[in-house]
């Protein structure tokens, strides 16, 4: 599972739209869309913001990405 898929799945589990996640995390909705599509690799700052908003450890998001490589 890619990082983008992990973010999308967790967002879905929480019942959040991309716009709601954007408001909660401070990350723009277009940026979230790019991440979920796998078109962009986020910086550590954005990963931290998203992990907090999604209530998931940043390590879990990164671990998922490492397995996909």
Reconstruct the topology from this structure.
Elements: H1 3-13, H2 18-25, H3 29-37, H4 44-53, H5 58-68
Textual characterization of the structure:
It is a single chain. The protein has 69 residues and is an all-alpha fold. It has helices at 3-13, 18-25, 29-37, 44-53, 58-68. The termini are close together. The mean pLDDT is 89.
Termini separation comes to 10 Å
- Could you tell me the number of beta strands? 0
> What Rg do the Cα atoms give?
11 Å
Structural class, from secondary structure content? mainly alpha
- Which consecutive residue ranges, at least 5 long each, have pLDDT under 50? none
Element order: H for helix, E for strand: HHHHH
Q: Kindly estimate the percentage of residues that lie in beta strands according to DSSP.
A: under 5%
Query: What overall form do the CA principal axes indicate?
Result: globular
Q: So how many helices?
A: 5
What descriptors fit this protein?
globular; mainly alpha; 69 residues
Can you describe this structure in just a few lines?
The protein is mainly α and 69 residues long.
